[in-house]
Specification:
The chain has about 80 residues and is α+β, with helices and mostly antiparallel strands. Helix content is about 35%, strand content about 15%. Strand 2 (about 15-20) and strand 3 (about 25) form a beta hairpin.
Length: about 80
């Protein structure tokens, strides 16, 4: 499995997202940021939201493959 590491926030929560008056959004508080598997960020969010099935977080991000589901369940 070839996974290209990406910069991950690793602490997604509503308090870290700001919408200024201008278009766009700002993501704040990068102290837990790390490079890694993009699905690990979704897995951490699923845990924070107390989802019974972490694979539900995949539905928001994209159309999951069976491999994606196995990876997020691993986290």
């Amino acid at each position: 499995m070839d996974i290209e590491p990406r910069l991950l926030h690793h602490d997604l929560q509503p308090g870290h997202l700001v919408r200024p008056a201008a278009r766009g959004s700002l993501l704040l508080d990068w102290e837990l940021a790390a490079f890694g598997d993009p699905l690990s960020g979704l897995a951490r969010l699923a845990v924070r939201l107390d989802l019974t099935d972490p694979a539900d977080a995949l539905q928001v991000a994209h159309q999951p493959t069976p491999n994606d589901v196995r990876r997020i369940q691993m986290y």
